[in-house]
Specification:
five-stranded parallel β-sheet; about 450 residues; FAD/NAD(P)-binding domain; alpha/beta
């Protein structure tokens, strides 16, 4: 057996092989890729938790893990699943055996879409055939569209694209399938969301097997899934630090210098800025104005919020791991799109059963006071005939910058990870990709950024 080389320690106020700024999913992916390529990596995160815009923390009153927005993984998230396996946390995400979703309508009517993974590609067809809540003609057309619908015309919204699909874009299948999928994947309503992003999701999730469309739900807080990056980097002689805001980045002999707000510096020939576009632009503005200019459009893209409400009850109330809350035919409704049985995922603590409701693209709801949002969540559970019980407690999380708000005009603002500056790359779900701004997009971007800076052959001087 070959003997492992002794780990090299990261150098403060000195030279390392690579620096990654930002400990979200893109930054963690970049840091791991660099470390696995033999680089001594320093990973710096300004916040007190790992995960960026997909993170978690213990509720201060109950200790239950609370996410800053309930995230769902898909079976087709190959890059994300590989990274979680590398970190040893893949077992903390429970994937369905195929696609299984329960839908509720106002008044309590329920239906179910179940596509068994054991039947492979045929499982999805069988699931759609059994989904009798949707008219037969729409189900048949939907199955065909999922398998071979061509890419939408450039600049199309989801609504415009569906208008071209005939029965596959019929009124019932829009309410039950296309609208929930669009809001979950793109965090925008179909009338605004770019059809190109939805088509990319369809290709990955529904043109393979039913296992590709399976939902994965975290059994722990999102931040816990990536927190082992600390040990993973340490094993390769690297360092991962929380609560380390960066003040500035600049050129250094043979590479780049990162200065923290407390005055400490790190230098390396390779630098990945895995932070939001506006933050990346601000960091490079003084040292590399051309790079900053190239990020102008991405930094100007507005963001779309989501709102997550966790309610604790003294009994189980949902009856399924995840329930789609179908909007009424005329639109409107309570404004929440999904309900999750958090107790089934993270356990029942002190007799409290947590249920989480999520509202995507929740601009109106996010502007409301917390007490009114809690009442809206309770009203939604009552309207869908889930429960009228009084919760023991409630927690509201507003994430105002949950995702970039892409439409047909702003989609082209996504820049490549390459910056034109040797050894410098950007990473995040906002970089160029055919994927929506999801965890998978972030991980793929981080890996691409690492690959790009690894191609830089320069080194530190002195």
């Amino acid at each position: 057996m070959a003997r492992s080389r002794p780990a090299r320690r990261p150098v403060v106020n000195g030279a390392n092989d690579a620096i990654v700024v930002g400990g979200g999913w893109a930054g963690v992916a970049a840091a791991l890729s660099l470390a696995d390529a033999g680089q001594r990596v320093v990973l710096l995160e300004a916040r007190r938790t790992w995960g960026g815009r997909a993170t978690s923390w213990p509720d201060p009153r109950h200790g239950d893990p609370v996410d800053n927005g309930q995230h769902v993984f898909l079976g087709c998230y190959a890059a994300t699943r590989a990274m979680l396996k590398r970190l040893g946390t893949d077992s903390l995400v429970a994937f369905q055996d195929g696609l299984e979703l329960e839908y509720r309508e106002i008044g309590g009517r329920a239906s179910r879409l179940a596509a068994p993974a054991a039947l492979g590609r045929a499982g999805l067809a069988l699931g759609l055939a059994r989904w009798t809540r949707v008219p037969l003609a729409e189900r048949i057309a939907l199955a065909r569209a999922l398998l071979d619908a061509p890419p939408p015309p450039p600049g199309s919204t989801v609504t415009r694209w569906l208008d071209t699909l005939g029965a596959a874009g019929g009124p019932t299948v829009r309410r039950f399938f296309w609208q929930p999928l669009t809001e979950a994947a793109i965090n925008e309503p179909p009338a605004r969301a770019p059809a190109a992003l939805l088509h990319a999701t369809v290709v990955r999730a529904f043109r393979g097997t039913a296992a590709d469309a399976a939902l994965g739900l975290a059994r722990a807080g999102l931040g816990e899934l990536v927190a082992p990056v600390v040990d993973a980097l340490a094993e390769r002689g690297g360092l991962a630090l929380l609560s380390q805001p960066v003040a500035r980045v600049a050129s250094a002999p043979g590479g780049h210098r990162v200065t923290l707000e407390d005055g400490r510096t790190f230098t390396a020939p390779r630098l990945v800025l895995a932070v939001p576009a506006a933050e990346a632009r601000a960091l490079v503005a003084d040292a590399w104005p051309d790079v900053a200019h190239a990020l102008d459009a991405a930094a100007a893209v507005p963001t779309s919020p989501n709102v997550t409400v966790t309610l604790w009850y003294d009994r189980p109330v949902l009856g399924a791991p995840v329930v789609g809350l179908v909007a009424p035919p005329a639109g409107g409704g309570p404004g929440f799109h999904w309900a999750f049985d958090r107790a089934a995922l993270v356990g029942v603590h002190d007799g409290r059963h947590a249920v989480t409701l999520v509202a995507s693209a929740a601009r109106g709801l996010a502007a409301q006071p917390v007490a009114r949002i809690v009442e809206a969540a309770r009203a939604a559970l009552a309207a869908y005939r889930i429960t009228t019980a009084v919760p023991l407690d409630a927690r509201v999380v507003k994430e105002p910058r949950a995702t970039p708000s892409y439409d047909a005009a702003t989609l082209a603002a996504r820049p490549p990870v390459a910056t034109g500056c040797p050894g410098l790359a950007v990473a995040g779900d906002w970089t160029a990709s055919d994927l929506p701004a999801t965890i998978e997009a972030a991980v793929c971007s981080g890996r691409a950024a690492a690959s790009h800076v690894l191609s830089f052959q320069g080194g530190m001087q002195g």
